[in-house]
Design a protein that fits this description.
Helix 3 runs antiparallel to helix 4. The strands form 2 sheets. The protein has a 6-stranded antiparallel β-barrel. It has 3 domains: 99 residues, Efflux pump adaptor protein, beta barrel domain (Elongation Factor Tu (Ef-tu), domain 3, Beta Barrel); 65 residues, Beta Barrel (OB fold (Dihydrolipoamide Acetyltransferase, E2P)), CATH 2.40.50; 118 residues, Four Helix Bundle (Hemerythrin (Met), subunit A) (Up-down Bundle). It is α+β, with helices and mostly antiparallel strands.
């Protein structure tokens, strides 16, 4: 009697195992179950590239913006003054370069020529005086001191003539090539500082980088803000993502480019989208995802791009994702 009962138990165990295996295979290879995730709307912290006093704030929280809209403005006066100084430096450097390229004026050359003639005449006079003193010295009619003075005056006259001739040569030649290069470099540096001042003045205007909605207004007019300090937080509306998770058993059914439907509890609309990214690394199911599986199960993160989002999809909203039938 015991043997038939034992045989029935073995058969029951085998049948139960087979049915369990069949059910596991059906779950693994059957229809794709819904996925669960949250809306992920990216935001941007907007700040100025220069520091200063906040003069204007044009938008409030919740206001929609378009790329290029003026959001805020700093006090421009200090940077306008800095730009005026930079422009004056450019004018000065331009004048110095023109002078280096033009060389000496005709009047300066004539003045140098006159200096040479004057020095030559002085040398002729010094030579005559020296000749007279030498004759008188040979005749014993003057002293050695008088002869030495005449020789010294003649040497000084020769030196003054050489100096005047060199000054005339410099006046005719103009500036050296190195001086012209230095003047050109000084002008380039002045223009760069002017352009930098103009850029800083333009940076007193904070523009929207893309379409979106103002999420946070962090500062008020009159506040002093530093470089990069956020004054607005902008939620982008041009791309809306859904962060979802899939188990390993269904990972092969969810590939980049697969078409999906996104549903939320707050709207009856069915949103279209596609899988844009599948994480290559497994992770534990996050606490914000409600799935039938245990929270300790390993899942893979998906990033789904919603093709035509609207205002009903909000940051962090829980959604359900269904794989469209026939999608690879």
């Amino acid at each position: 009697m015991k043997k038939p009962i034992a045989g029935l138990l073995v058969v029951a165990v085998l049948v139960g195992g087979y049915l369990g295996y069949r059910q596991w295979m059906t779950d693994a290879n059957g229809a794709m179950p819904p996925l669960y995730g949250n809306v992920d709307i990216r935001d941007v912290q907007l700040g100025f590239r220069v520091s200063g006093r906040l003069a204007e704030m044009h938008l409030e929280e919740g206001d929609p913006v378009t790329a290029g809209d003026l959001l805020a403005r700093l006090d421009e006066l200090p940077l306008r003054e800095a730009l005026a100084v930079a422009e004056a430096n450019v004018m000065e450097a331009t004048a110095n370069l023109d002078r280096a390229n033009t060389g000496s004026r005709p009047q300066e050359i004539e003045q140098a020529e006159a200096g040479v003639e004057e020095a030559r005449a002085a040398l002729v006079n010094a030579n005559k005086r020296l000749a007279r003193q030498q004759d008188l010295f040979r005749q014993g009619l003057n002293s050695q001191r008088a002869l030495d003075d005449a020789e010294s005056q003649q040497e000084q006259a020769q030196a003054r003539l050489r100096s005047a001739q060199e000054a005339l040569a410099l006046a005719r030649e103009g500036f050296r090539e190195e001086d012209r290069a230095a003047a050109a470099a000084a002008l380039a540096a002045a223009e760069a500082r002017r352009d930098q001042a103009a850029t800083q003045l333009d940076d007193t205007r904070l523009l929207a980088p893309s379409d979106g909605v103002i999420q946070v207004r962090a500062r008020e007019p009159g506040s002093m803000v530093n470089i990069g300090e956020p004054v607005y937080t902008l939620s982008l509306t041009d791309v809306v993502y859904v962060r979802a998770y899939v188990g390993e058993t269904h990972l092969g059914q969810v590939v980049p480019g697969a078409a999906v439907e996104v549903l939320s509890d707050s709207s009856e609309r069915v949103y279209r989208g596609q899988v844009g990214f599948v994480s290559p690394r497994a992770e534990f199911t996050p606490k914000t995802v409600e799935t039938p599986e245990l929270r300790t199960d390993l899942v893979y993160r998906l990033r789904i791009v919603v093709t035509e989002p609207d205002d009903n999809l909000r940051q962090g909203m829980p959604v359900t994702v269904r794989l469209v039938d026939g999608a690879d």
